[in-house]
Design brief:
InterPro entries: Chaperonin_GroES (IPR020818), Chaperonin_GroES_sf (IPR037124), GroES-like_sf (IPR011032)
Strand content: 25-35%
Helix content: under 10%
Radius of gyration: 16 Å
Largest sheet: 2 strands, antiparallel
Protein name: 10 kDa chaperonin-like
Strand order of the largest sheet: 1-4
Order of helices and strands: EEEE
Keywords: Chaperone
Family: Belongs to the GroES chaperonin family.
GO molecular function, one term: protein-folding chaperone binding
Number of strands: 4
Length: 46
């Protein structure tokens, strides 16, 4: 699994009731990223 650092975060989403739902991550957090969902591609045998 890959990881990455969050560089920017928006304000969140508005729920059905109109209230702002906060984002679960903040700038600077390290997050886990799943492998690409498509076909693995090798370039120059790498």
């Amino acid at each position: 699994m890959n990881s990455g650092k969050v560089v920017a975060v928006g304000p969140g989403l508005h729920g059905k009731d109109g209230k702002l739902l906060p984002v679960a991550v903040k700038e600077g957090d390290t997050v886990l990223l799943p492998e690409y969902g498509g076909t693995e591609v090798k370039l120059d045998n790498k």
